[in-house]
Amino acid sequence: MQAYYAVPCPPRGEIETSLAGRPAGTEILVAEESGALAGFAAFSAIYPGPGLAGGLFLKELFVGARYRGGGHGRALVRAVAAQAVARGLKRVDWTADAGQPALLAFYEGLGAAPKPDKMFFRLDGEALSRLGGQG
């Protein structure tokens, strides 16, 4: 995933420490093929939503390049959806790169509907520090 996003990959120990200390409520499902990690889905609960209904937010869905097209992405999203249904939650939300038509088609093929009335925002860096009282 780090190579895909063109960012350096931290050392294995740092990754393991980060995973062990991830925020409460964060869950990760993995897809394997022949004992190798093919992909993963990271998600957490969100509440409230419309009608005070809870849901899940799929923060990251990633399948390694050599495993794409093998059904791993679909299986991971299906597993997240199954978690939502089992918990009595009413939706699964996520963001997607608008410049990736194949990805958007994949999501729509799952039955997901784009929400063009919504816009994605991010608060990070200096703006986060300033607003959070650190800058």
Automatic annotation (TrEMBL):
Q: What is its EC number?
A: 2.3.1.-
Specify the domain of life of the species encoding this protein. Answer: Bacteria
Please give the Gene Ontology molecular function terms for this protein.
acyltransferase activity
Enzyme class, spelled out: transferase
Per the UniProt record, which residue ranges are transmembrane?
A: none
Q: Which SUPFAM superfamilies match?
A: Acyl-CoA N-acyltransferases (Nat)
| Domain N-acetyltransferase: from-to ranges | 1-133
Q: Which UniProt keywords apply?
A: Acyltransferase, Transferase
Q: What is this protein called?
A: GNAT family N-acetyltransferase
Q: Which organism is it from?
A: Methylobacterium ajmalii
